[in-house]
Amino acid sequence: MTSVAEAALRRQKARQAEQRLLSGDRWTDSGYVFTTRDGAPWDATNLGHRFQRALATAGIPHVTFHAMRHTAATLRLARGVPARVVMEELGHSQISTTLNTYSHVMPTLMRDAADEVDRALGGASR
User: Fold this and answer.
1) First vs last Cα of the chain: how many Å apart?
2) pTM given for the model
3) pLDDT confidence of residue 107
4) Is the confidence at residue 123, as pLDDT, over 80?
5) What total number of domains does the chain contain?
6) Do 11 and 43 have their domain in common?
7) Which has more pLDDT, 9 or 117?
8) Which residues of 18-38 are buried (b: 16+ CB within 10 A; e: fewer)?
9) How many helices (H) and strands (E) does the chain have?
10) Of 24, 56, 92, 124, whose CB count within 10 A is highest?
């Protein structure tokens, strides 16, 4: 987990602890990180609406959760994160699923790998 994500989750945990105290007996211990004011899980439709409003407020165009997941995985692969690590983060049971889904990233990675071998052998990379 990144330090930025960890810090955000710690802030959310503190907010949730405050909300738990305010809710008293109405609190539902759902085990989720992001919940309604009484601890219940968010309804998926409401979550989607809240997310789109947050994007609009930030000046970011409409994007789906699935598209964000795809973008995050693509960026991680393009930055050299091993496919096995990305596979585990995405919850794929087979590495072939990850590699087939994100195969458009592979030509760049192959070029980068070839450049690294060139540098290791004392050649000039492209």
Assistant:
1) 33
2) 0.62
3) 77
4) no
5) 2
6) yes
7) 9
8) eebeeeeeebeeeeeeebeee
9) 6, 0
10) 92
- From CA 122, how far away is CA 126, in angstroms rounded? 13
Percent helix / strand / coil, the chain, rounded to 5? 65, 0, 30
Q: Are 16 and 35 in contact (CB under 8 A)?
A: yes
Alpha carbon distance 14, 102 (integer Å): 36
C-alpha 37/C-alpha 52 separation (Å) is 20
Cα separation, 73 vs 86, in Å, equals 6
**Contact (Cβ atoms closer than 8 angstroms) between residue 27 and residue 38:** yes
Token pair for residue 122? 């004392």
Q: Please give the structure tokens belonging to residue 20.
A: 């738990």
Domain range for residue 79? 64-126
| Same domain, residue pair 16 and 74 | no
Most confidently predicted of 19-23, 110-114, 122-126: 19-23
Tokens 């000039």 found at = 124
